[in-house]
Amino acid sequence: MKRLLQLLAAVLLVGGVAGPARALTLGLGIDPAQSSLTPQVGAPASLSGTLSLELGALPPLGANTTFDVVALAASGGGLSIGLDDDLASPGLGVLFTDGTFLIPSLHLEVDGLDLTVTNVAGTFGPAAACGGALCLETGFDVDPGGPEGVITIEVVAAVPEPRMLALLGLASVPFLRRASLSFPRRVSLSFPRRVSLSFLRRGGRS
To answer: Which three-class secondary structure string do you get for the chain?
Structure first.
């Protein structure tokens, strides 16, 4: 019962399931086993960290909608990568119905240096790379101006709680049905036997 209340509270925190016009913010973990930094000069390194997306409408893949990277904290190969916080929407783009996205101008801060990457494209949806969970995949180049030259960045990031998406109603979207969004069997939503409902008998029938 406690677990059920926690899950319902989480739904309320992200805006509930009242309608398709509500925005949804998702946190993703960058997979260091599949994400990397590859410089022109020097050895490649894995990339790890987190990012957050804000989708302009629910369900996210039911129609074209805004696709906004609102937070980014990543590191690898001695570099730290984040968003340019001096701008209001440094990672604003569009998510299309086929699961592809485009960010016309991604404004980053790489080791304190402000850089703009144009036409960042990728995919967002259930993917084998993330075990069938909702997954962001993209790649782009940056040039911090150091001896390493241009750095190619590959990112694979997954939503860590697919069962929360099921609560939000996203499993009803045909494109998302291929993902496993069911609750694990160990989660019990039935009332424990120790809960007594005898007070109903005392009140009589209405």
So the answer is: CHHHHHHHHHHHHCCCCCCCCCCEEEEEEECCCCCEEEECCCCCEECEEEEEEEECCCCCCCCCEEEEEEEEEEEECCEEEEECCCCCCCCEEEECCCCEEEEEEEEEEECCEEEEEEEEEEEEEECHHHCCCEEEEEEEEECCCCCCCCEEEEEEEECCCHHHHHHCCHHHCHHHCCCCCCCCCCCCCCCCCCCCCCHHHHHCCC
Q: Which domain holds residue 161?
A: 21-170
Q: Into how many domains does the chain fold?
A: 1
Q: Higher-confidence residue: 150 or 130?
A: 150
Full-model pTM: 0.69
